[in-house]
Amino acid sequence: MAQDEMSPREWLYLTTPIYYVNDIPHIGHAYTTIACDVVARTSRMTGTPVFFLTGTDEHGQKVWQSAQKLNLPAKIYVDRIMPRFRDLWKFLHISNDDFIRTTEERHILGVQEALNQLWKKGDIYEGPYEGWYCMFDERFWTQKDVSDGLCPDCKRPVEQVLETNYFFKMSQYQDWLVSWYREHPDAIRPESRYNEIMGFLEKPLEDLCISRPVSRMPWGIPIPFAKDYVTYVWFDALLNYITVPLSMPGTAENLKRLWPATHVIGKDILTTHAVYWPTILHALGLEPARLIFAHGWWTVNGEKMSKSRGNAVDPVLYAERFGSDTLRYFLMREGQFGQDSDFSDSSLIQRVNADLANDLGNLLSRVVAMASRSAEDGMFRIPEGYVPSPELLQAAREILPEVPRLTLRFEFHKALGTLWTFISLLNRYVDSKAPWVLAKDPDRKHELDCVLSDLLEGIRVTAVYLAPFMPQTAIRIIESLKSSESLTGLSYQTDGAWGRLPKTLALEPVLPLFEKRNPDGSVQKEPRPARVGSPERRGEIPAPSPSGEPIPAEPLKTGESQPLTRPAKPEIDLEAFQGIELTPATVLAAEPVPKSKKLLKLTVDIGREKRTVVAGIAGSYTPGELIGKTILVLANLKPAKLMGVESQGMVLAAQTETGVSLITFDRDLKPGSEIR
Ligand code: ME8
Predict the structure, then answer these.
(1) What structural domains and CATH numbers belong to the chain?
(2) Is any ligand 1 atom within 6 A of the Cβ of residue 335?
(3) Which of 231, 267, 343, 507 is the most buried (most CB within 10 A)?
(4) Tens digits of per-residue pLDDT, 240-274?
(5) How far is the CA of 89 from the centre of ligand 1 (A)?
(6) Rounded to two decimals, what is the model's pTM?
(7) Dihedral sign of CA atoms 91, 95, 98, 102 in order
């Protein structure tokens, strides 16, 4: 009887923190989200049903202050910043099942419902509050905590406040919480974090102030029973983990099916998740999370990453420059998940050159090149009577299953290290069998093709085990081997097993998957590698376009690295520039150009008339997503025929490492508006 028929598989309900939209995302945010994505993808491949949630935390003081700095209404501000997160996750191929914004109605109603429930139950009371308040951390401190008028946590000045507020009776759940953790010693990982929380719980727990007077901070969820107050941002934010399942069709059933969740967070927000949250859940009649994993902190070149230091690393720039899979690989490989790690260009480049370009990329290109040379009539055939190498078969059976096992224990660096042990074994197998020697002797063709079959199959299973970490690379490898797996529905049990390579392969030589880099990050040698497979199959997604979404007043800088520069062109005078008619054009219709993989035919409105323009953007945009966009067109370019279609202008776009990014506008405007 199949597993599913015996008992339904238990769900993995996996969450990232919901990130503040007080600024644009940096690699710290990408780290947590990529780690969750790797776990979600791995779990799905083992057959576990997964619900993977991420989102944005859009209320509270920090967000309010950022909006104020830009002189924008808070809702307009959050609507502009939120897409930077949402689009980054698409760009990094994050497979989240939902994305929650705390300003959505489904969340607001859920929070108000929870507040009402606790109010009616008597778990929330009104009371005076006198003490110190840290604006930055949005938390109260008692006299004994504060010295020299500074916040003990962030060392910024605190303010004296005296006001009436609403409190959640957190203290009454302290004994229960301590005994729950004693019975569930695995509920917080790493173990040191569990010990930290047990230590914290040795001191008396205070009640939690869950309101903020509107007069001081108006940006939050109104408290239904206290009209002059909004909800404290942490009480609001933590509830996202249940407002989402509760707002799905089937409500209570969904929560029952998914709960308890697994929360992956940074070590900075352990107390809120491991103390506030389980007491709130308990008061609402729900059990605490199954697991809270608090990972370590990324520094940059040995320094704390912060906006004021200007050293926050922008994941978009790195993913554009090195590829999103390379960034994913580096973040998962470089540090230990529970420990702090350091980001530097040199360690990234070292990983690219050694692990990706040498070990993996070269293995694929040299094996495929040798196999295509050994092909007859363009077809490589697994020879009759082929018996897999016992050495490789045994290694695959022993080593590879360790990869998902370690991944599901959040030991990503070990999981990848293990996979690379297998890759090294394949490389050693190439060297020891020396297929180039076998190729010289026609009598040894059978032996040669057996060795190549071993290697091709070894690479194929490597791609399957690599897929959760580097989904696009896995697709490219699988495509280059013409094996039919698609990443949706890939499973370790079937696809990960040895022996699923097609018997006949129409292989073409492939150029390296990864480019070797110089110490400054520039590509070591031309030509640029061809990508395996078509852009559509590669599933490339354009980088989040900064032009569509205005960025905050002080955009983050990226460490030492900047995008690669191009050689300068000769100067032109103003007259030459004025001879160019650049115009905003609205896309009215878009369709593929028959027989072309790259070209789209667009009908655009340039203000005074409609034009047909043909653009090589099919690898980066679908026709549907273009309609309604206002883009930049060179309107007085001599018409030219492309694949039989006359193009009456040229669409302008920037070339990125993974495709193109169209030039758009950050304000609504009429097509044909003058560009100066
Ligand atoms: O705390 N290294 O949001 P936030 C590693 N909205 N991870 C880092 C990091 C770094 N240097 N910097 C940030 C909030 N992170 C709340 C959460 S949840 C109900 C509400 C990651 O935007 C890490 O996961 O400040 C950390 O916990 C999170 O971003 C904090 O994101």
Answers:
(1) 344-505 (1.10.730.10), 535-552+566-662 (2.40.50.140)
(2) no
(3) 231
(4) 999 999 988 766 788 888 999 999 999 999 999 99
(5) 15
(6) 0.79
(7) negative
